[in-house]
């Protein structure tokens, strides 16, 4: 009797956690431990991370040495601050990722963008909720206090899925900090 009740509690807890992705939003420090600065290969850094609706980018840098400018694709390519979508200069700037799609950022100081490559292009992935009828996207608002997570990295197994058209993500991987689980790579049941 006690073991049956314990099993019910465990199953309920797993199901409850699986259906609560907004609470799993994460703060992602741009550039990792190096922060936002010169001499960092941001294309390589982006390849090692997933950015999901509800996450927050955190740009950490010495105030006065750099800035953060959010731009359109055209202005990003030209490192132009004209008609910027946003700009920050506090040294610890927090940019919420509220919608899925591409986002472009660069440093607006001197030649940091144009000559030194201090620019960041990411694609924010939608949240995928699992339900009895299958996966569906959600645009729920993120939790007010996001968890800090270690982002998915290529060295944790498998290739990074394409930004659009990728298979549904297992929310368990967010909880455990493990690699993205691609359903196409799961073993197939044997029929005897």
Automatic annotation (TrEMBL):
Q: Which Gene3D superfamilies match?
A: Cupredoxins - blue copper proteins (2.60.40.420)
Q: What is this protein called?
A: Phytocyanin domain-containing protein
Q: Pfam families, alphabetically? A: Cu_bind_like (PF02298)
Q: Which residues form the signal peptide?
A: 1-25
State its location(s).
Membrane
Q: Where is this region: Disordered?
A: 133-169
Q: Could you tell me where the Low complexity compositional bias lies?
A: 133-147
Query: What CDD domains is this protein classified in?
Result: Phytocyanin
Q: Tell me the superkingdom of the source.
A: Eukaryota
Organism classification: Eukaryota, Viridiplantae, Streptophyta, Embryophyta, Tracheophyta
- Annotated Phytocyanin domain residues: 26-126
Q: Which GO terms describe its cellular component?
A: plasma membrane
Question: Which GO BP annotation is one of this protein's?
Answer: response to symbiotic fungus
- Record InterPro entries: Cupredoxin, Phytocyanin-like, Phytocyanin_dom
């Amino acid at each position: 009797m006690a073991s049956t009740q314990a099993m019910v509690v465990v199953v309920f807890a797993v199901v409850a956690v699986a259906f609560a992705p907004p609470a799993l939003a994460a703060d992602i420090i741009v550039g990792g431990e190096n922060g936002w600065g010169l001499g960092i290969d941001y294309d390589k850094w982006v390849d090692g991370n997933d950015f999901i609706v509800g996450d927050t980018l955190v740009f950490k840098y010495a105030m006065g040495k750099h800035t953060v400018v959010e731009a359109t694709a055209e202005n990003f390519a030209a490192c132009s601050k004209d008609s910027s979508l946003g700009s920050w200069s506090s040294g610890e700037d927090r940019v919420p990722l509220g919608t899925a799609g591409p986002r472009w950022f660069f440093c607006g100081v001197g030649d940091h963008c144009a000559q030194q490559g201090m620019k960041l292009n990411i694609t924010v992935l939608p949240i995928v909720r699992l339900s009895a009828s299958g996966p569906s996207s959600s645009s729920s608002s993120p939790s007010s206090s996001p968890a800090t997570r270690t982002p998915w990295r290529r060295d944790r197994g498998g290739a990074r899925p394409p930004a659009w058209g990728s298979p549904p993500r297992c929310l368990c991987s967010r909880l455990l900090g493990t690699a993205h689980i691609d359903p196409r790579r799961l073993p197939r049941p044997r029929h005897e």
